Amino acid sequence: MIAKHVRNLKNYEPDYNFTGRPARASCDRITLPDGQSAYVQFVGIQRGVSRSNVKQRLLSTLPLLKDNEIVGAPDGVYAWIYSSKGLVACPVFSKLEFGSRHFDMLRRMEIEADAELYGAGEFRKVDNKITYNIASGSVTVQLMRKMENGSGYMNENAASVAENAARAFASLEGIESEYTGNANTFIDMPLTFEQVKFYESLGYNIHYYKNEENCKNPSFTEPAVLFAQIDQDERMKETMRRLLAKNPEQLAEKLAKLDASIHEKEMKMREYMHLVGGTRRRKQHRKRGVKKRRTAKHHRA
Question: pLDDT above 70 covers what percent of the chain?
Fold first, then answer.
C-alpha cells in the first residue's frame, strides 16, 4: 500500500529562511585559485540587494525536472520528491543546498493543496544509473511520524517510503536504480571557490577569513552576523507593513516585536564593537572631541 501523507502545501511555511541556512552559518573551507585555503561565512543578503531578485536569479539555475525529464539530466546530485503528481527532481548546486532543499521544492511545485506526498530524498546520477536514498527531514520524517502507533513504526514507515521510491524510479525509461538502504547523504561534496563567487554574484553577503580560528571567533564574526540580522528584521518590517496594512492592531504587534528584536541585537553589537575597538563613528567622535578640547585650550591661552 502506498504510504500517503496529505499536507496543505499552500500554507506550508517551514521554520527556515529561504536559503535554508540560519543567519549564523558555519565556517566552510575553500581552496583559492592560488592554492591557499580560506574560510567563508554566509551572513544574509547584501545591503541594497532585493531578496526576491536573489531568489529569482538563484532558482533560474535550478530547474525542476519531472518524470522522464530526469533521464536526460546531467550527471550529479539531486533532491527528489514523489507525489500524486509524479516524480520531481532538482539539481543540488553545492553542499549549502540553497534553493534545492525539499521545502524550497514544495513551494515551487505547482500542485494542489491536497496533493499526496509519497516520499522524498536525494539521488546521485551517473550515466544511466541512479543511486537514491529517502533522506528528507521535511517529507520522509513527517511521513514516518504519521503512523506513530507503537514501537517499530519508524522502520515500518521507512519501508513503505522506500517501496514508493522504488516504484517512482522504476518508471524512468532506460534508468537503472539502486536504493542505498540507509539515509547517508549524497550532498557531501566540498564547497568550491567558484560556487562561493557565484553566490556572491547573486547578492549573498559573504565574509572571508584567512584561518578557521578567526572565522569562529565571535569578536570577528558576531558584529557582521548581527548587522545582517538587523537588516533582515528591517526588511521584515517593510513586508509586514504591506501584508498587514488592513489590520493595524496585528501590524502594531508585529512591528513592536521586530523593534524589540532590533534593539536587542543593537545592544549586543555595541558590546562587540567595544571589544574590538569601537566603530568608525565612535573613533570619529573621539577625534572630534580631542580637536574641540585642543581648540578650547588654545582660546583660553
Answer: 70
- Res. 6 pLDDT band, cuts 50 70 90: very low
Judge contact between 185 and 133, C-beta under 8 A: yes
Position 4 scores a pLDDT of 33
Confidence of residue 151 (pLDDT cuts 50, 70, 90): very low
Region 128-155 average pLDDT: 69
257: phi then psi, degrees, rounded to nearest 5? -65, -40
Give me the pLDDT at residue 206, please: 85
- Spatial CB neighbours of 26, under 8 Å, sequence gap ≥ 6: 41
HSE-up of residue 112 (Cα within 13 Å, Cβ side): 6
Which amino acid is residue 56, in one-letter code?
Answer: Q
And the C-alpha cell for 182? 540507509
Q: Domain residue spans in the chain? A: 9-32+47-179, 217-300
Residue among 59, 137, 66 nearest 102 (CA): 137
Query: Average pLDDT, stretch 253-278?
Result: 76
Read off the pLDDT of each residue in 275-288 and give the average, rounded to a whole number.
Answer: 43
Grid cell in block for residue 238: 517593510
pLDDT value of position 182: 65
Residues whose CB falls within 8 Å of the CB of residue 244, separated by 6 or more in sequence, listed in order: 250, 251, 254
State the Cα–Cα distance between residues 90 and 138, nearest whole angstrom: 15
